[in-house]
């Protein structure tokens, strides 16, 4: 029998609605799971158990009174420690912020809290959302539950590890070059980087303002949809927030893909560094989609390196602009990998940055044009080059050696999800990406959900 | 070609210009990374060539239309 802590948000929500379990009982069991597993996996940085039990008790009162605030009322969530939480330490993974107590809540937590979510704690993230895995960081990094000698992916590493081990059913991550999708892929869970502007970033500690995205992670894409339905929405206090919004996703999810046309991005699947296993996992997923009624069309996009270098140039330049004063005054207190990655931005010229922004416009328009010309609803390509790297193999600038297969969606602002796709010969999770047009987040999650329903054996929680 | 700000052998001086303490950084790794970035950013020339000057202005509404 599945332990209640290992259930999906959807199933927990149904149990709460039917009064088969209380939010206090559920939260108590999750707290026990965190206490038992966190010393091994290091996913939670700052637990908030007392607050969680108070919020759970309040949720139970609402449920008993027939006044449930939302489908996630009474459900425990955990936040990447880059989201400000009023009165609760928020470190962004840095020793420089080890005593930082925000005065305001991040917009995402405001929305989750108002929807009745229970805050289980703050999750480890790599320093300033780009540093990991740093052995000299102020806080230990989350370990990959499937193999602690391999990277859990960054920067939402704690979220990936916590979800994969049943310590929490829902988490919030952020994604500038893949920081939701990479840990989701490496840890075998689900995550979506929403359309740029769909989810407010107010109160999310930035890395690169024009590339940062806030988004949900969970064990299923349906759960991501339930969370996205809560956190999406225009925010007048976030300059990047869009007035354009989307209909609720979760209520309309289906289990087939009839009418969908999916483009298999063959040049991404065969790009430098992509393993045969990763490519084959993606191709097997496309076979499943054919059986679910989708039409698959091979398609060629611009070179993956073009997206990668434009994304890296913008991120590195904007990251240095953000941290330049901190680097001048406290560089030796910043972990080795982080300070080297930030420092690179000091050597990027204004010319390079401007050209990267121009390239971004061209690549965005080209991506959209190719989707239009081929009549595509979605794009599909691997979420990872291969197995997660061994911890010792991650060097300060490893990301300059091979293209970044998650970069296109950051650069274009299009929604993209990571979907689990079985296990490699090394018994590590594999995953593919689905990406859609701007504000087609619902379509992305719909197709991801259909695949997960068709492949239940790929879901695995590490005990 | 898009150039980074740095030549191969003067990264310490350039780091100082940026206000950074070069002693806290591994110079060999930084120089290699800058060289690599310099090679990679050449690709931006082709991508950027067809774009107007206004295309470099980040505007979320236009970006996502």
Task: Itemize the secondary structure elements and their pairings.
The complex is a heterodimer of chains A (463) and B (65).
Chain A: H1 9-17, H2 23-41, E1 44-47, H3 49-64, E2 76-80, H4 107-114, E3 118-123, H5 157-164, E4 170-175, H6 181-187, E5 190-193, E6 213-218, H7 221-231, E7 261-265, H8 266-269, H9 276-291, E8 295-299, H10 304-330, H11 336-343, H12 350-373, E9 378-382, H13 407-412, E10 416-423, E11 429-436, H14 441-454
Helix pairs in contact in A: 2-3, 5-6, 7-14, 10-11, 10-12
Chain B: H1 11-17, H2 27-40, H3 42-49, H4 60-63
Describe this structure in words.
The complex is a heterodimer of chains A (463) and B (65). Chain A is of the alpha/beta class. Chain A has one domain: Alpha-Beta Complex (Amidase signature (AS) enzymes). An eleven-stranded mixed beta sheet of chain A has the order 1-3-2-4-6-5-10-11-9-7-8, sandwiched between helices. In chain A, α7 runs antiparallel to α14 and α10 packs across α11. The two termini of chain A are 14 Å apart. In chain A, 62% of the residues are buried. The mean pLDDT of chain A is 96. Chain B is mostly helical. Chain B has one domain. Chain B is elongated and about 40 Å long. At the A-B interface, α10, α11 and α12 of A face α1, α2, α3 and α4 of B.
Measured on Cα atoms, how large is the radius of gyration of chain A?
A: 20 Å
What is the number of independent domains of chain B?
1
Oligomer: heterodimer
Distance between the termini of chain B: 31 Å
Please name the two chains that share the biggest interface, counting residues whose Cβ lies under 8 Å from a Cβ on the partner chain.
A-B, 50 and 40 residues
Q: Would you tell me the overall average pLDDT of chain A?
A: 96
